[in-house]
Write a structure and sequence with these properties.
Helix content: 25-40%
Bound molecules: 1-O-phosphono-alpha-D-glucopyranose
Radius of gyration: 19 Å
Order of helices and strands: EEEHEHHEHHEEHEEEEHHEEHH
Number of helices: 10
CATH class: Alpha Beta
Largest sheet: 9 strands, mixed
Strand order of the largest sheet: 5-4-1-6-11-8-12-10-9
Shape: globular
Number of strands: 13
CATH topology: Spore Coat Polysaccharide Biosynthesis Protein SpsA, Chain A
CATH superfamily: Spore Coat Polysaccharide Biosynthesis Protein SpsA, Chain A
């Protein structure tokens, strides 16, 4: 295979959204975690908007039982729109929830065997194409967005890319960690990858932060991937095997990242984004000062 084969345009994105969201109970008993709002947009919307900005055309949601509300969110709400139009209300708030017909596909992950397994569940849709992966818990905030920055890098180097950021050393055990090679601006060569290493075994403090561009060969590796860290089928373990045969780089995102998988990160994202919103930032700042004062 020539290097040219590793530069096909990235049109498809996979969103693993089958998780149970137990950390946010009771809020997530009847509502998928991905629909919890940061200000007035559900978490998943931020990831979908980031994907669209990067030129993604086809959206694959890997869902599970109790997650169908996510699909509803991106469907046309005929009654709602007709009623709003009839009352002379603007439909602008619904604009970003519209998908082109046929561009939203769902596949089910029937058992929670791990992130690697969730991604593998999308194989029939991704076929022979490279694809992006978005973990919606990781809210990447900036302009251009994280995936747009990664696509720019992909156009230069091709192959496989992950987004990375540096964390304090004692936090590496919660993440996938890269063994870095040569650094060129925001691009780092990836020489190794390990999922949730012990602090003393971690090859660096650069962690994979929930955005990926992968070549289709990852699916063959995932098909036979055994269990790894935490007894789960880990995407990181299969990615590590790709490094020997295909280009593999990491992009350091220039922007802010909020870990919305944790309550503190969720509150931080809410506050930061509310403060940054032109329509409400000044009022939120005054309110926060009042509360703190
Ligand atoms: C997953 C990935 C890990 C990555 C992390 C980012 O872990 O397996 O490599 O660093 O997401 O949030 P999880 O959070 O599902 O344990």
């Amino acid at each position: 295979m020539t290097e040219n084969n590793f530069r096909k345009p990235v049109r498809i994105a996979v969103f693993p959204v089958a998780g149970l969201g137990t950390r946010f109970l009771p809020a997530t008993k009847a509502i998928p975690k991905e629909l919890l709002p940061i200000v007035d947009r559900p978490l998943i919307q931020y990831a979908v908007d980031e994907a669209r900005e990067a030129g993604i055309e086809e959206f694959v949601f890997v869902t599970g039982r109790g997650k169908t509300a996510i699909v509803e969110h991106f469907d046309t709400a005929f009654e709602l729109e007709a009623t709003m139009s009839g009352r002379g209300k603007s439909l602008e708030p619904l604009e970003s929830t519209r998908m082109n017909p046929g561009n939203l596909v769902t596949v089910r992950q029937q058992v929670p065997l791990g992130l690697g397994h969730a991604v593998w569940c999308a194989r029939a849709v991704t076929g022979n194409e490279p694809f992006a992966i978005f973990l919606p818990d990781e809210l990447m905030y900036g302009s251009p967005g994280c995936m747009a920055q990664m696509i720019e890098a992909y156009n230069e180097v091709g192959g496989n890319l992950v987004s990375v950021l540096e964390v304090p050393e004692n936090e590496v055990s919660s993440y996938g960690v890269i063994k870095p090679g040569a650094v060129n601006g925001n691009l780092t060569q990836v020489k190794g990858l390990v999922e949730k290493p012990k602090v003393e075994d971690a090859p660096s403090n650069k962690i994979v932060s929930g955005r990926y561009i992968l070549q289709p060969e990852i699916m063959d590796l995932l098909a036979s991937q055994g269990k790894g860290a935490g007894g789960e089928i880990q995407l990181t373990d299969s990615m590590a095997k790709l490094i020997d045969t295909q280009p593999f780089h990491a992009v350091t995102f220039e922007g802010q990242r909020f870990d919305c998988g944790s309550k503190l990160g969720f509150v931080e994202a809410t506050l930061a984004i509310a403060l940054d919103r032109p329509d409400m930032g000044a009022d939120v700042r005054a309110m926060a000062q009042r509360l703190l004062g």
